[in-house]
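pipeline: protein-struct stage 2 | run 1193 | site-specific DNA-methyltransferase (adenine-specific)
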Amino acid sequence: MSNANDNTQTVVPRSKRLRSKSSDDVSSQSDDWLSVVLNEVEVDPRIDTWNCFFQDTHVSRHKPQNSEITFNTPFIFKSVNPAQNLVNGAESNSQRRQEFSSNLSSFSTNFHSEDLVGKVVEVLGILLEEVKKDIWITIVNKDHLIPASFLREFNKLVHDSHPNNVKTPFIKCVEEFRSFISRVQSSYLSPDIELFKNALNSYCQITSFITVVHMLFDTVVMDFLCEDNEEISIRQLSVETFMNIFHDDDNFLKRNIPFDDQPPNASENLEAFTWYYRLVVRSQPHYQCDLSMRFHSLNIHFTTLEPIESILSILYTKHFLNVLAKEQQKDHGQFYTPREVMRFMWDRVLIGKGNITWIEKLLGGSFQNSNLYSNQTPSNWGVLPQAPSVLDPCMGIGSFLCEFISRLTLAAQQCPIVWNNSGAISNLLHSLSVNLWGIEIDAFAYHLCKINITLHILPLYKRFLHLTSLINDLKLSRLHLFCNDTLNLYLPKREHTWEYENLWLLRSPQRLKFDFIVTNPPYMIRKTGFISEPDSELFDERVLGKGGMQAYAYFFWFCVERCREEIGEVCLISASQWMGLEFADKLRAWMWQKCHLVEFFQFEPFKVWRKIQTDSLIFRLRRRNEPISNSIPPIQPVLTESSILFLRYMNRKATLQETLQAYSNFDPNNAQFEKDMHFKLSLPYPMTQLPSSTNSYSFTFLMPSSAVSAYLHSITAHLPSLCDHASMKHTWVESNPLIWHRGPNTNPVYALVVRTNWAYSKFGPEVCRRWLRPVFYWNGKNGGKEAEFWQKMGDELRLEKKESSPAEAYVPFIINNSGGTTIAKDGLEQDRSMYSLIMVDRDAVDKVRREFGENSEFWKYLKEARKYLQTGFTSREVVYCGTSKCGIDVQTKIIHPINYGYFSKNQPRQRFFIDEDNVCVTNQCIYFTVKTTTRLPPYFFLGILNSTTIQHFLSHHCKYDQQGRMRLFRENMAKIPYAAPTHSDGVEWFIRCVQRMILSRQMLYEGIRICGDEDKVASTIVEKLRRGAWQLTGREWQEKESNAYNDETSVVLREEQDGNWVMVKQCRGRGDGVEYSLCPGSGVEQVARHEEEETTEQTTTFHNFSSAADVAVMKDHRTPSGSNISKTHLMKPFFESLLYASACLQYAIDQYTYSLYGINAKFQMALEEELKLELFEAILNKYPRLNGTAGNVEEEEKKGAVPEWGERLFEEVEISIEEGQNLLRQKRTILLRGYKNLK
């Protein structure tokens, strides 16, 4: 092991402050990042001059003794140039620098720093525990040190840690607190004392955290400004001197805001948590000396600010959020931006255009090279360099603002005429205090932000010290940082104060504009977390709505409104759903009118934040001087702005850093870009007009599309829509054949949908026949307050498990009677449906009261459900919902889940199925009905909707993120074109195919229920059915000597979030595993049996195979041990025959639809490859593709005609179905005979 000294850097003597040459390998870098940023005459930051005057490295020359943590080599936190990852070097001011090239990779942190930052956090964590113990002892023994605000904060913690809806105890005075303290150490703790003890522990954790952060701040400042060997008193004095340049209200060494000067919601006054640092740590220097010695013993010296943000964010997450506020990220949408992403965003807004460079953008003038301005001297400047105005409305710990300060420092350092003039440095510092604005709602994050920003001002302050001794002349105005809620910007109680006047300015976009707004708005729906109701004076409800809007949309509005017209820049990172989803229709229209859209960069899920399953979108825009007029655009528009760029990097194996690198390197004029880079350049307004025929104003047209999408658009642009864009009949277009519906919002859905068997036992048959109807439904969750409600109601099975959606293409996968998922066609009334919908709306409440009375179980249930699940609806006496859209009056409808997930190997196709039994649906599903003016039956549209062609349109128009998840909203479905058929023979043949597909799938489902190992068979058959495969080759399909089947363990399908199915192992009766069954209730409750004579007659409809007696037999036949009747392998010919028939029919349906839309064979294959669909040669060789050609007159006549192989395929399918029916009939006969013998 090498000695520590071997890797120790040479110390630059402090008195010399020489600039040394940079390493030779710099010029070997090939990526020319600064060729975009710098003009030819601009100073090139080849050498890392970030901290060139501050390279006072203080490294111990001896191996540390008795250190708690040891390194193999000494470490100094070296500064890293934002333009290049090099240690500090320097050269003379007059020497011209060489050509420099770099790229985004250089914006990563020091490659040493990740592990070493962890070591620093570890040291601070150890110190935090020590401080926490001492704080507890101090509170117990030295109450004279505790501030008056302690009890207020302590009572808040007691209240926050107490269960909801329960009155919390309250400590009114110090004597009462002392009484509590005396009882904490007893062996038995009452609930109140336990609550107080936990609150006190939280208080000590917070106070120790704040204390340690301040001690870290002191250490960094002392290391940055002083030598190691200086006295601790001198080192501490350097901290006080530095803090004295700030306004008294920003000097947190003595900060104490009067309570009345704070906004109504602010918790900025942290005096209750900072007293220990001020009164104990600051008064006893050995505390600070001890921390410095711990770091220095590990050869850690803070001579640069490079690691500070990482240390603060990790420390805050590990020792604050994870300990005290685990829900903070979810409830406040707090997800801290990775540093490389933050730097990338600042790169985008600082890229120079024309003659404007990044240095000019930051300094506000042409100061980059004194050689260009030979007559210019500091004394004859017209204007001193000044920091531009910057806003971060959700600044967190201040990372974006600190990055701006660092780049401003670098810009000054690149300009000798600025860097060597104390007046210029002083002016930059003053302009920073005036032009840097930020808002943060969380008081502790806000406090960390102020510390972070204060530290990042250190380099400019130190440079000022080197240039002048007039330190007392430097006094900054108060920083414009506010602990407030951006959605409200609460004003303090007292007017005519600094806080009041500046918040008043910030509330009005007409009074205050900014040059740069770069931030990461919170990711969350406003109504689901601790997000307040936005102030209507700040936000336009006509654009943003009154509820349900994503919180980040309000920040979009806030930022755009406060951006300086034309020259200001806004760069944000958010989820991408707002680009196309319905909730942001009006917001997109407003943004199109108000903004120049510049560029978009999309990131797949988990790429930016490893724990967030949503994609991310970085986008940049500028505010227009005048909004786009709604009038007719000019006849000959003049293009005055650049094209809108959208980039999507599809290399899923690439790291975040590699993805950012690819985005930075991309040049649309260079054809040699990476094959995984998908891009699109869209002409801006007025060359591009948003469609006027719809109110959706979708931005999805900006996104890159494949060659297949472009081709399909070109051949279908003239076609009508599959359904109408709006629900108003007077707006309907006759040529649009379908009507889109969505089931009602049965709020609360977990109360108005009940388990049918439970309802019959609870309410009685009369109530259920009158007010309950079968509903197509599945549990989307388990647990929570809803589950507690059902336990209280006596139905623990209601939310016992999260269920899979039973929706499948053409026919839903169902299990009959109470054990099943949804609807059965025969049997007793209470056995026809697993779930029922309570059909009580507002008008029906009085009818229920009159018919059954307020003492009935039904009325009591409705009342309890309102009280427990609708606590905010105090005006309602009982729970009810609108039922007009549930579809009970629609005999035939085509249903599909509204949230579809994404296409995958286990879910390769959509799942439209037909209902002809007046089944209700909830808002889990959409459904289509056919217009009376459309002379085509629903079966025709069922086939079209399940075709590969429509699948591609769904993927293109309905997906809302890069992962491909889809929502089948009306506006999205209305974008799908419809090609009407012209051949009646073709339509008839197509409908026959669809009907045979329904029959074959019904038979397959019936065969699954006959098998003994039903769950395992279901997983295999359903997967084959979806993929269009038919060969069964697994071990379970081979004849075995033993019939032993381990019923304790089976492999089943589980539907995960958004409808995606995966194979999982189920252990029956063992904890959570039981919830993941495709058929969740196999035989839980016995069905009533009806006597039925044995029959061998061939049935004409498959529905006769599902009687209650048959189902009872199918369940009971598994009882005899040793019976070979239910061996799985005996059903192999049956399944393979029908699976093959289904595959042929789906191929026929797809080919007919291709023909109808005029899609040629080449693009058919490209489309299927894009969707990752499998086609098998056995079918393709028999039935060749139909080569439809849109626009060809001869081919147009063949569109929608019966294929030349159509009847041949149909005959083969009929044979397969007939064979399947024979096998099924034989199986049922054997089962019925065996059942009667058992009886």
